[in-house]
Amino acid sequence: MFFRLGIFPSGTAVVHGYSAQVFDLSPLRVFERPVLELGRFAIDPQRGNSDIFRLAWGVVTQLVDQNNVSFLFRCSSFVGTYPEAHSAGFRYLCRNNHIAPNSWRPVFHGGYRLAQAFEDHKDGGAPNLPPLLRAYLGLGGKVGDHAVINPDLGTTLLFTGLNVEHVPQKRAQRLRAIFAAH
């Protein structure tokens, strides 16, 4: 397991992070306390299991607590450079109120608007969301309203954010307990 992270003193400082290379994150300046960018969160498929994943979230929770982090964010990666291939997932995100509020949603300067997924394919295919994105959503996370293609990595990127204040209390307590148990 490995991950890359950056802790910034406030949302204003995220211009130095990875996600700012592909998204206009100027709306994140509303976060005056530290923010954490979590990237390259990967678990070796040969060794990966849910216990390792939970322990990693316990470590992240400890970092959030120690640094008084108010917001977590990342680029969620979808395999391939054809956003249309992920239209079922994008429709799911739109229909289930997972789009970030205007107050901190990245500014659109181009890319694939998620709402376009309703026009691309009319089939009712099942959403195939990356595991870490599902974890963020389960904690109350939200996504931007557009995806950006990264031709260098062969992926479609979707901004994903989590306002720490919106994490359900019981979930936060469980994550703290996981870290404390190890």
Helix proportion: 25-40%
Q: Overall 3D geometry?
A: globular
Strand content: 15-25%
Number of beta-strand segments: 6
Q: Sketch the topology as an H/E string, one letter per element.
A: EEHEHEHHEEH
Taking strands numbered 1, 2, ... along the chain, how are they ordered across the largest sheet? Answer: 1-2-3-6-5-4
Low-pLDDT ranges = none
Through-space gap between termini: 16 Å
Mean pLDDT: 90
Tally of helical segments: 5
Largest sheet: 6 strands, mixed
Structural class: alpha+beta
Count of folded domains: 1
CATH topology: Aminopeptidase
Gross CATH architecture? 3-Layer(aba) Sandwich
Instruction: Output the radius of gyration.
Output: 16 Å
Describe it.
With 182 residues, this protein is an alpha+beta fold. The chain has a single domain (2-181), classed as 3-Layer(aba) Sandwich (Aminopeptidase). 28% of the residues lie in helices and 24% in strands. It has five helices and six strands; from the N terminus they run ββαβαβααββα. It has helices at 50-66, 87-95, 117-120, 131-138, 169-181, and strands at 2-8, 35-42, 71-79, 112-113, 142-150, 155-163. It has a six-stranded mixed beta sheet, with helices on one face. A hairpin with a 4-residue loop joins strand 5 and strand 6 (155-163). Helix 1 crosses helix 5 (169-181). It is globular and about 45 Å long. It starts with a strand and ends with a helix. The mean pLDDT is 90.
